[in-house]
Specification:
The chain is α/β, with parallel strands linked by helices. 41% of the residues lie in helices and 13% in strands. The protein has a domain at 275-394: Aspartate Aminotransferase, domain 1, CATH 3.90.1150. The longest helix is centred in the last third of the chain and has 20 residues, at 275-294.
Length: 396
């Protein structure tokens, strides 16, 4: 198959996006996310680093509570700030906090609690915020994978003390490597700006690299180009059983911190104008396909809580067993249908992360039973039907 959909539904770029724009990307993104201002960063990981480095200035507390199933870059960012990542198990069959466990973890040394909106799905901000406030801790929303989602009528990232977004590839809007941090409090927002100027300098080598990569994204982010840019490297990793590399989980603590140049911001400003329509279209497709998947006995597709409205870069599917999940992936992951895995492990199980013995059975079970299905408009109906057939057979 020469054509291949991406693993997530990213917004394609137009040649018009590369034309100059006089509008402020910071202001336009703030308007889109329901904030008064934003601080643009070079990645979502950089946004989390900026948020925590800023909050560290305001307190002697040093612990940051994160879910035990999330991107491995998150604890690396916590460590980069000289803070301590503290794992909280997830609730059964989900990525969100086990709130009974969260209550026991938060104490007088908890600087921040980080609820995570994973895969476009919206975390329970009320419960997380109540527990954090009782402990005197900040709430930092990790909305890296949920730009444009809503929690109870409010934009995710605008509810906690600080919100962090990713503008990386596949996250909806992208400037290749990019991110943003925001705060509702004006003094805290100003402190974010000051801290950013302290930790991120303009590095021409990195900015030139990102511009070239963004041009490559424009050229290759289409069904005819993704087989070359994504599919061939993926299948090479799978053949060698390098699952961490196949899922993109090979994270380094030496992630870059640098400023984003004006041209890339201009590209983001123009592309942002098309994002609401893209989210609306992919939401319609996702909800229809979610119902088709849920008609298969034994399969659960994570959705939204009442009052929430997530975005849909992919469908996050929970299989009844690890064996059934692996049987389906053996056929689908290398086949070029946009099916794969989100994170290979719960955080304690990555060989390059160091945690004390942590009891996280729910997070480990979630990692063992989940797979993702692309919600890209380029995943055709016939290919989606084939995915459903393989899933059915894996449960037989």
């Amino acid at each position: 198959m020469f054509r291949e959909p991406p693993p997530t539904a990213g917004l394609p770029l137009s040649w018009r996006d590369f034309l100059p724009s006089t509008a402020s990307f910071e202001a336009e993104l703030a308007r889109f996310t329901g904030n008064t201002s934003t601080q643009i960063t070079c990645s979502g990981t950089a946004a989390i680093t900026l948020a925590l480095a800023t909050l560290k200035k305001t307190s002697t507390r040093r612990n940051v509570v994160i879910p035990a199933y999330t991107c491995p870059y998150v604890p690396l960012a916590v460590n980069r700030c000289g803070l301590n990542p503290v794992l909280c198990d997830t609730r059964a069959g989900h990525f969100d906090f086990d709130f009974a466990r969260l209550k026991t973890i938060c104490d007088q040394d908890t600087l921040a609690v980080m609820p995570t909106h994973l895969g476009g799905r919206v975390a329970d901000l009320q419960a997380a915020s109540d527990i954090a406030r009782q402990a005197g801790a900040y709430v930092v929303e990790d909305a890296a994978q949920a730009l444009g989602a809503m929690w109870q009528g409010q934009h995710v990232g605008s509810v906690g003390d600080v919100g962090c977004y990713s503008l990386g590839v596949g996250k909806g809007l992208t400037i290749y490597g990019g991110g943003a941090a925001t705060a509702g409090d004006a003094k805290l927002q100003e402190l974010l700006r000051i801290t950013h100027d302290e930790i991120a300098s303009l590095k021409l080598v990195w900015e030139t690299r990102r511009i070239l990569e963004l041009a490559g994204y424009y050229l290759l982010y289409r069904p005819s180009g993704l087989k070359l840019a994504f599919g061939i490297p993926l299948r090479k990793h799978l053949r060698k059983n390098r699952l961490i590399e196949a899922a993109g989980d090979d994270c380094s603590p030496d992630f870059p911190l640098h400023r984003v140049g004006s041209w890339r911001k201009s590209i983001g400003t123009r592309a942002l104008q098309r994002l609401p329509e893209f989210i609306a279209q992919t939401t319609i497709q996702a909800l229809r396909r979610k119902s088709l998947l849920e008609a298969i006995s034994g399969i659960q597709v994570l959705g939204d809580n009442p009052g929430d409205k997530g975005v849909w870069p992919y469908l996050l599917v929970l299989m009844p067993s690890e064996q059934a999940r692996d049987k389906a992936l053996a056929t689908l992951w290398p086949a070029g249908f946009g099916v794969g895995r989100l994170f290979i492990h719960a955080l304690p199980d990555y060989p390059y992360l160091s945690f004390a013995q942590t009891d996280t059975p729910n997070a480990r079970d979630f990692a063992a039973r989940t797979l993702t299905i692309s919600n890209s408009p380029w995943l055709g109906e016939q290919d989606f039907k084939r995915i459903c057939t393989v899933l059915e057979h894996s449960l037989a």
